[in-house]
Write a structure and sequence with these properties.
The complex is a heterodimer of chains A (about 250) and B (about 900). Chain A has about 250 residues and is mainly α. Chain A is built from twelve helices and no strands. Chain B is mainly alpha-helical and about 900 residues long. Chain B has helices spanning about 10-20, 25-30, 40-55, 60-65, 70, 75-90, 100-115, 120-150, 155-175, 180-205, 210-235, 240-285, 300-305, 310-315, 315-320, 340-375, 380-390, 400-425, 430-465, 470-475, 475-500, 505-555, 580-615, 635-655, 660-685, 700-720, 740-750, 750-760, 765-820, 825-835, 845-865, 870-880, 885-890, 895-905, and strands spanning about 635, 685. The chains are: A mainly alpha (about 250), B mainly alpha (about 900).
């Protein structure tokens, strides 16, 4: 196979620590410029995410801890690039995650252990336990749709739910959350489930169906009797409260 | 692709197989039963075919191959799962597999994902993909040259790589916005980083990056700072949590009262700062001390009891002769070493209290209206918003959650009721009749109570002239007023039940009616006060004489050694006038305090004790107290709001004569905030129909503005037309209070300014100015009307456009459905079309769904029919030279050539 000149990695695991190749780093931010530039392959290179979100030595120390290393520096950097969190927040989230199942989750993630925290524990987090859609949230963000979450899924979930996440991203995941039968459309059945969960089943059947009918009437742009992602986004774009309510603070 | 990971050594072959399949529309797959599980045997043949087509590096083919079946895959979900599988498998691949080729595969995957990304990103992605497409070829060659170790890049290639690098950088920067699972994001990120790293150096273009990075950093920091600042600002808003708590229990209508209370508190704080900072503190610090002049001394007759609590409680004694009241201030033009012009400051602060209040009320009204206009279009989505945005994901408390559930349920029910009501028209005549009847009854009530008040006030004036009147006759006015205030609101409420209004509208009517009733209250109060003032003013002349004579006699009395000047008369002994301003101030002060006490006692007795009784006596009572008669009290929104508004009116009226009044009011609002919060949470129940306060509620503000105007009138009247007391207050000795302005202008401004002011005060100038203002108002009003008309028209147009778009879309949908349904033969062409361009309309997910369906059909049909060859060369031919098939597949969005190829693909159908 004609190997492209791209980087040959020892292992393609999506786990950051596996980037064993010494990264030539040019920390371009003013603070981190001091941290020194190691000449890698003879050319300066830039890591833009890192530049945009500089790592200060203190957080490094705190994050790594004096006792043990939870993440390598690269892992943290990459998580920062892939989520809306800072280093500190990632560490906090990790500890939250670890607290859910202390005997299950190791304190050393440099080896990228394939650990999943079961849904029962995820759903019992105070941030989620009152949420009528917690099962859906866990389902959407978990890898296999069974609600059991790896740390990556966990970070994904709270990244999307963070207040920094843009409306589009939130709308995309909100759509998936409200799409109960995973058919990429919010149909009347999904709407009924949503209403039932929102009201704890206190509306009568006629009322529920009236509400669903009205929602479809309002938001269904192409009159096919169900909401596509596009319809949903079109609607949610105008919702004044969406950003403030679709948001979990952690 | 769904197969399980093959042994490593076979991996490549399997991939070749996949490639074979990947020409999915092409004949090879035709024999493939599964359509996507190519046998290994086939692989060499495929390779051969590919080889025949020639010169393309196998990587590219692979991309083409790998990606192509995906758009045709039956279900998105499946696709996704498969993608995940692949990602997993990709992870397990040997390092050798991790070449540019595999990266491209991933890119292919990525771009397919991107098709499903939210539409807003589409444009960006489109751009990206286009560039990507253009870059394909050069890049591969550059890759090749990279492997060979040669650095001979042509200019063009360099530029392209540079562009690509920029793309990657953008990808890195926006990675966190992508709706991908973390594993994918990480892989993509690493790919992009590696690419950037590799080629940035090779290109040797490093300049400007630092600046860019710095700017990025600064932008980030700025955003973060702004966010933090906003958070800080919200944290600075007091009682936010309390109000949220109440809102979750009692709905936004009750919370709106507390928000109004908080707003009022803020306004009063500003007024308080103004008065304390500019009037009270200068007077206390720099004015002549207490006891030095008559107006600052308790008179001899009152000295005995001046410190008694009962006297102080009535704001007499020492309190009366303190800086809290008008009379304490001296009429010295300047005080202290700062030469602070206190009378002038007093006058200006009195004016600016009104000015500031007017400004703030009107400003908040304006901002509310602005909010309401932008809110206009959300009417179209009442139910949708309720369904999808009403749950607050921040809720983590079970009690709050319970409340949220109930409030959502109620709001749904309410919207349903509204909806049904808007549809129901049959009872319109009855409703109209009932409403007219109710209004008639209420107007009768109001007229009756108005007449009653008038009658009682008249009678009280007669009584005041008579001697030895009974207790009842003396207090008749107050008794009648409080009886009216007690019984009319419930009566109104009962009558309003006839009208069958929505509670929100009902509340407004109720507020308006009680307001009208309370105006009578205000009227009697002011009338009594004015009578008092006039009485005092008429006595003033004689008192002035007496004072004059006392002093004259004191100094000129015989029998005193003329050579030794007599010690000045002690200020406490000087006879003085009644100082009507202070009397008015005291009246307002008393009223405010008694009002506060009455409110608190009502809350304690009416709400708290009732709640206690209901709660605890329920164990041993004949019937269910909680559900039955007394039950718990509901929070009385209208009464509380009106109480607040009228109280504020008192403050505005009184603050000119009692600068300390605003301080008392600040205390009152503060305590009532805590007290009422506690009371409402402890002893009230939510309304039967929890209703939402409209967000753009100008009704409270409108009432407040009316009251502000009404309270401005008497103050302006006293300032302009009553002479101030001769021996107390900052304006003593002047003919009118506003003379202080003239005095300042004459003495402290240059003469020409005085002339200008005098000229400006000329009625010949003022009347045209007023006329001009009217004209301006008229003009602005007509402009705003025409603008709003234009606005409405535009909105209608947008609506119409949307309708057209909708119908267009649905028609198109039907068409495509028909096409795919009618002609099974065409389906393979459709697949072709799909390969080149999966989504005909850029944003229509539905369309893509139907295409997916079609594709499913296609796969089966294409596997059945053998005549596939003609299509694919045709398609390939139809592509523009620079575009690789793979990239073509990746282009999910509208491209100029897309339609062409689509047409060409469809041509055989017809």
């Amino acid at each position: 196979m004609p190997g492209g000149p791209s980087v040959t990695r020892p292992s393609p695991f999506p786990c950051p620590q596996m980037r064993s190749r010494g990264h030539p780093k040019a920390w371009l931010s003013p603070e981190s410029a001091r941290q020194g530039v190691t000449a890698g392959q003879g050319h300066p290179s830039t890591r833009w995410g890192a530049a945009a979100r500089p790592s200060t030595p203190e957080t490094e120390v705190r994050a790594m801890g004096s006792k043990q290393t939870v993440f390598t520096r690269e892992q943290l950097e990459e998580y920062q690039d892939c989520t809306f969190f800072t280093r500190k927040e990632i560490m906090r989230l990790f500890y939250r995650y670890q607290d859910l199942a202390p005997q299950l989750v190791p304190l050393d993630y440099t080896g990228c252990p394939a650990v999943k925290v079961p849904y029962e524990l995820i759903g019992s987090m105070p941030e989620l336990k009152e949420n009528p859609f917690r099962q859906r949230i866990a389902h959407v963000f978990s890898e296999d749709g069974d609600g059991h979450m790896t740390l990556d899924n966990f970070l994904d979930m709270f990244s999307v739910m963070s207040e920094m996440a843009p409306r589009d991203l939130k709308a995309y995941y909100a759509f998936k959350i409200y799409d109960f039968n995973d058919d990429d459309y919010i149909c009347a059945e999904d709407l009924q489930q949503t209403v039932t969960r929102l009201t704890r089943g206190e509306l009568s059947a006629e009322e529920v169906s009236l509400v669903c009918e009205k929602v479809l009437d309002e938001a269904d742009g192409d009159h096919d009797g169900r909401l596509s992602l596009e319809d949903f986004q079109n609607m949610i774009l105008r919702a004044p409260d969406f950003l403030s309510t679709f948001h979990i603070r952690i | 692709m769904t197969m399980s990971p093959p042994p490593k050594d076979m991996e490549e072959k399997a991939h070749d197989g996949a490639r074979g399949h990947a020409w999915s529309s092409s004949p090879q797959t035709g024999n493939n039963k599964s359509g996507r599980r190519p046998s290994r045997k086939r692989a060499p043949k495929v390779e051969g075919l590919v080889g025949m087509r020639g010169a393309q590096p196998s990587q590219k083919q692979k991309e083409w191959v790998r990606g192509s079946p995906r758009p045709g895959s039956p279900r998105r979900e499946q696709t996704e799962r498969r993608t995940r599988c692949e990602a997993l498998r990709g992870q397990e691949q040997s390092p050798a597999m991790k070449t540019g080729g595999s990266r491209r595969k991933r890119d292919g995957r990525a771009s397919f994902k991107e098709q499903r990304a939210p539409p807003k990103k589409d444009k960006e992605l489109l751009r990206k993909e286009e560039k990507w497409k253009q870059l394909k070829k050069p890049r591969s060659s550059s890759l090749a040259s990279g492997t060979s170790g040669g650095e001979s890049l042509s200019e063009e290639e360099q530029a392209q790589i540079l562009e690509q690098v920029e793309e990657k950088k953008k990808l890195i920067a926006t990675m966190r916005n992508k709706p991908w699972p973390m594993a994918k994001k990480l892989t993509e990120l690493r790919e992009a980083q590696a690419f950037v790293e590799k080629y940035e150096g090779a290109l040797g273009k490093g300049k400007g990056k630092r600046l860019y990075a710095y700017r990025m950093l600064m932008a980030k920091k700025w955003v973060k700072f702004k966010r933090d600042f906003d958070n800080f600002k919200t944290q600075c808003i007091p009682w936010e949590m309390k109000i949220k708590d109440i809102e979750s229990h009692f709905g936004s209508s009750v919370a709106s009262y507390f928000i109004f209370l908080r707003w009022m508190y803020g306004v009063n704080l500003v007024l308080f700062g103004l008065i304390v900072g500019l009037v009270i503190i200068p007077e206390v610090l720099m004015g002549v001390p207490y006891g030095s002049i008559p107006r600052k001394t308790v008179p001899r007759a009152e000295e005995e009891k001046a410190m008694d609590f009962s006297v102080l409680w009535d704001f007499e004694g020492y309190i009366k002769y303190s800086a809290l009241f008008y009379g304490y201030y001296n009429n010295q033009r300047t005080i202290g070493w700062l030469r602070y012009r206190l009378p002038m400051a007093y006058f200006m602060v009195g004016i600016s209290v009104f000015g500031y209040s007017l400004m703030i009320v009107i400003r908040s009204m304006a901002s509310n209206t602005q909010g309401s206009t932008s809110e206009g279009e959300s009417d179209n989505f009442t139910f949708s918003f309720k369904m999808f945005t009403s749950w607050d994901y921040l809720i983590g408390n079970s009690e709050t959650a319970d409340n949220k559930y109930t409030s959502i349920t109620t709001s749904f029910k309410e919207s349903i009721v509204d909806e049904q009501e808007s549809n129901r028209e049959e009872n319109i005549h009855l409703t109209r009749f009932l409403r007219i009847l109710a209004n008639f009854l209420i107007i009768c009530c109001l007229c009756g109570s108005g007449y009653l008040i008038y009658f009682v006030v008249k009678r009280s004036q007669e009584f005041s002239k008579m001697q030895n009147v009974s207790w009842y006759e003396r207090n008749e006015v107050e008794i009648v007023m409080s009886l009216l205030g007690m019984f009319c609101p419930p009566l109104f409420e009962t009558i309003a039940a006839l009208e069958n209004y929505h509670p929100r509208i009902g509340l407004k009517w109720q507020l308006g009616r009680i307001f009208a009733l309370f105006l009578g209250n205000l009227y009697t109060f002011l009338l009594a006060l004015m009578d008092d003032v006039h009485l005092k003013l008429s006595n003033e002349a004689t008192i002035k004489n007496i004072t004059h004579w006392t002093l004259f006699n004191y100094y000129n009395s015989s029998g005193w050694n003329e050579s030794v000047p007599r010690p000045p008369l002690h200020p406490a002994d000087v006879p003085r006038g009644s100082c009507w301003e202070t009397a008015v101030g005291i009246e307002f002060m008393r009223l405010t305090v008694s009002d506060m006490l009455v409110t608190y006692i009502t809350i304690l007795l009416g709400d708290f004790l009732r709640a206690c009784f209901v709660r605890f006596m329920n164990y041993c009572w004949c019937w269910d107290l909680e559900a039955g008669f007394p039950s718990y009290a509901e929070f009385d929104i209208s009464g509380n709001v009106l109480g607040l508004i009228f109280n504020q009116g008192m403050i505005w009226m009184g603050s000119f004569y009692a600068p300390g009044l605003v301080g008392i009011n600040v205390l009152r609002l503060l305590t009532s905030m805590y007290f009422q919060c506690w009371a409402v949470m402890s002893s009230n129940v939510p309304h039967e129909r929890v209703f939402k306060a409209s967000r753009s509620d100008n009704f409270y503000m409108g009432l407040l503005l009316l009251v502000l105007f009404l309270s401005l009138l008497p103050v302006a009247y006293t300032i302009m037309s009553l002479p101030p007391s001769f021996d107390c207050g900052p304006f003593s000795g002047k003919n009118r209070m506003y003379d202080i302005l003239q005095e300042t202008i004459e003495n402290d401004f240059p003469t020409f300014l005085g002339k200008i002011f005098a000229f400006l005060a000329n009625p010949g100038l003022i009347i045209p100015a007023i006329l001009l203002m009217f004209l301006a108002i008229y003009y602005l009003n007509s402009v705003s009307k025409s603008l709003s008309r234009a606005n409405a028209q535009l909105r209608k147009k947008i609506q119409a456009l949307r309708e057209v778009e909708k119908s267009h879309k649905s028609v198109k949908n039907k068409d495509t459905d028909k096409v795919s349904g009618d002609t099974p033969k065409s389906s393979k062409n459709d697949t072709q079309l799909q390969i080149t361009k999966p989504e005909p309309t850029s944003h229509s997910a539905i369309q893509s769904q139907t295409l997916d369906k079609k594709a499913r059909d296609t796969e089966t049909s294409s596997s059945a029919s053998g005549t596939l060859l003609p299509a694919s060369p045709h398609l390939r031919g139809s592509q523009p030279p620079g575009v690789k098939p793979d990239s073509g597949k990746l282009q999910s969005r509208t491209h100029p050539w897309r339609s062409a190829s689509g047409k060409s693909a469809q041509r055989p159908l017809h």
